[in-house]
Amino acid sequence: MRDLGKIKAMVRFHFLGFWKNPRILITFLLAVVLCFLLSDRVLRVAAHFETTMQGAEPFIWTFGDGTNVLLASLLLILMFSDVPKLSPVTPFYLSRMKRIQWMISQFLYIAAGTALYVAFIMFVTVILCQKYTYPGNVWSETAVRIAYSGLGDSLGIPASVKAMESITPYGCMLQTVCLMLLYSWTLCFLMLAVNIRFGRSRGMFAGIFYSLYGFLLEPETIAGILGLEKQQRYKVNILAGWISPLNHATYPGHTFGYDDLPSVFQSGALFLAFLVLLFLLAGRALKSYNFTFMGY
């Protein structure tokens, strides 16, 4: 219990001045701008048909797209560019706790900060579209029009008939949030592990490379680069669905019992396995990590 108390105290210390940090404020302000720009397509559809949407649908359609998830997650690279967090008080804590406890506090700080960021994005998206939404847990007429008419494909709105037939809007939003959160955790924890192993600033490059890797493995990106026809894209979609972390983070990129894509549960399991691997790698690198406090 005393060890747990030390970790909790360290996490609380990391959050001191959280909302006074200019980098954090810029990240959340840019998130508001990003949500406003990305949700514009959804708003235009509702305005054009003069129909309403279920309250969860704007978030589902906006962040059911891999490119939008990528753009939102890139802001986390700015937000956590300073991990692992060091301050003049760090030696005081390190003299009273084990290194592994200090690292756990870093992971918990990142996990909580990322969860707050994803929840903020969800809240802002819902608020921006509230003029056209209703709270009932039933798919809207707007969703039906987009999904069944093929309009979603032309506008890049991932409204799926298969998803609508298998889950409720709030259930879909919950799974979309969980997938986005797991992807964001892997990105941020990768940055932390690389910074501990190779030194500061290297984590940012690792985060950018991880994002670029996911983007290049998007089925549409691969098909565009290779010039594939529609008939040839099926195998590419299946392959990318399993090896692209960005595809695992998007709800429409999963199977609904009709193909060989991963299920939401399988994607969650893969993300969790990667997180455990990152924790083990960071723990191993921590043994030779040199704490430097110059400049504080």
Automatic annotation (TrEMBL):
It comes from the Bacteria. The keyword Transmembrane applies. Keywords: Membrane, Transmembrane, Transmembrane helix. The chain crosses the membrane at residues 21-39, 59-81, 102-128, 173-196, 208-228, 264-286. This is ABC-2 family transporter protein.
